[in-house]
Design brief:
α5 packs across α6 and α9 packs across α11. It is built from eleven helices and ten strands. The chain is of the alpha+beta class. A hairpin with a 5-residue loop joins β5 and β6. The strands form three sheets. It has a five-stranded mixed β-sheet with strand order 1-2-7-6-5, with helices on both faces. Strands 9-8-10 form a three-stranded mixed β-sheet, with helices on one face. It has a two-stranded antiparallel ribbon with strand order 3-4. The chain is 44% helix and 15% strand. Its cofactor is Mn(2+); Mg(2+). This is PAP-associated domain-containing protein. One of its GO terms (biological process) is RNA 3'-end processing. It comes from Parascaris univalens.
Length: 310
């Protein structure tokens, strides 16, 4: 995604924010998802987080409250749809994290917009991926290619029990940190704890600017593999990965042995990938043996095409 396209999306988000601030004056509308992480394409949705801070309770995570806020915003959008016709197809998805979907008309083409309320974890996750994308351009290139492959292989459908797009990006981060030598991506949590460390997010929302200063990366050996070579190695790595015995930690940039005690939810999970800011398993959508086998076979099939039998 070009800088011009990102600037265009920023302007659209500002236009939406001005509309929302008519009913929620203190609201912030923050870029997240593939636009913020620089891992999207021209056809990617515009993901936005509507951040509204309660004087007493802070950024409320109560689902009912968030759904109520998005419903009020939807009513406002419907008025704009009838008056100005620049926003249309307004719909609320009643998921675990409620989403307000709409389409914004623009001279350069319509953009599909997804707005959540107070999903701050998604903002910080996107911010981290944004910095990884700026460290090495091969990372966003792999993200776009592998996402398309995963869609074609039917393993990028979390509603059907396979992987979500964020987990796929984390799998790429892990591979570029631990799956090849020399590593391409550093562990930003370790290098910059003031910005990326801990269970509680360190940077304030008003400091979450795209294209701000990059972390200081220590000099190390340069990996000169091409994106095509990395793609083949990525498929091979996950075709051979022992999901039953190993789990991935993004925050530690490591692979660890899975716990053996029977009552652990991690022990029962099919795939375990711990996110960068907490211990939540981002691959928890993979629950059935059928989905698990589908994912493993997709990696083995891709590796076989490029490298022969695994």
């Amino acid at each position: 995604m070009s800088r011009n396209e990102i600037d265009r999306r920023v302007e659209i988000s500002k236009r939406i924010a001005r509309l929302i601030q008519e009913i929620y004056p203190s609201a912030e509308l923050i870029l997240m998802g593939s636009t913020a992480s620089l891992c999207g394409s021209l056809t990617s949705d515009l993901d936005l987080c509507l951040a509204i801070r309660h004087r007493k309770f802070g950024y409320e995570s109560n689902r009912r409250r968030r759904l109520s806020i998005l419903t009020n915003v939807a009513v406002m959008f419907q008025r704009a749809e009838s008056d100005e016709a620049w926003i249309k197809d307004i719909n609320i998805i009643h998921a675990t994290v409620p989403i307000l979907k709409c389409t914004v008309r623009d001279v350069l083409g319509d953009i599909y917009v997804d707005i959540n309320c107070n999903n701050l974890a998604g903002v910080y996750n996107s911010y981290l991926l944004h910095h990884y994308a700026r460290i090495d351009s091969r990372f966003p290139a792999l993200c776009m290619t592998i996402k398309r492959w995963a869609e074609a292989a039917n393993i990028n459908m979390p509603m059907n029990g396979t992987l979500n797009s964020y987990t796929i990006k984390l799998m790429i981060v892990h591979f570029l940190q631990c799956g090849i030598w020399p590593p391409i991506l550093p562990n930003l949590r370790k290098l910059c704890p003031a910005r990326f460390d801990g269970v509680k997010y360190c940077a304030a929302l008003n400091e979450m600017h795209l294209f701000d200063r990059q972390p200081q990366i220590p000099k190390c050996r340069i990996n000169k593999r091409t994106p095509s070579e990395l793609l083949m190695a990525f498929f091979d790595y996950y075709a051979r990965f022992d999901y039953n015995d190993r789990e991935i930690s993004i925050s530690c940039a490591s692979v660890a042995k899975r716990p053996t005690f029977r009552n652990s939810s991690r022990r029962n999970a099919k795939i375990v990938i711990h996110g960068p800011f907490d211990s939540v398993n981002t691959a928890r959508t993979v629950k059935s043996e059928e989905s698990f086998e589908l994912i493993k076979e997709a990696f083995k099939r891709a590796a076989h095409i490029y490298l022969g039998p695994v």
